[in-house]
Amino acid sequence: MTENDIGHATAAKVDFVVVENTERFRSLKRSHRSFVFPMAVFFLLWYFVYVLMAGWAPDFMATRVWGDVTVGLLFGLGQFVTTFVITMVYVSFANRKLDPIAAEIRADLEKQETGA
């Protein structure tokens, strides 16, 4: 056994089930879900509107906006734009709200694991 193995053998074991049931961890999960679920619903609705419009309103989707650019093309490109915007907003949200709490939980677990 190496010195590192011995250190891990004597370290306190972390009970992750207990950690998962702490208010701080549940609060982190709530914060995450309060962002992710509404955004997922919004994006899926937006996507289905696009698909339904393509199927049931082809004349509207074929309406030219300028040159060969149609409403359907703009809706399709809007899907990509929306994906990138949601991603950027999520990253910002995670950096501001989720990551600090997760870092605190991680630091506490590392202290607990090393027996500090």
TrEMBL record:
<protein>
    <submittedName>
        <fullName>DUF485 domain-containing protein</fullName>
    </submittedName>
</protein>
<keyword id="KW-1133">Transmembrane helix</keyword>
<feature type="transmembrane region" description="Helical">
    <location>
        <begin position="69"/>
        <end position="91"/>
    </location>
</feature>
<dbReference type="InterPro" id="IPR007436">
    <property type="entry name" value="DUF485"/>
</dbReference>
<feature type="transmembrane region" description="Helical">
    <location>
        <begin position="35"/>
        <end position="57"/>
    </location>
</feature>
<keyword id="KW-0812">Transmembrane</keyword>
<keyword id="KW-0472">Membrane</keyword>
<dbReference type="Pfam" id="PF04341">
    <property type="entry name" value="DUF485"/>
</dbReference>
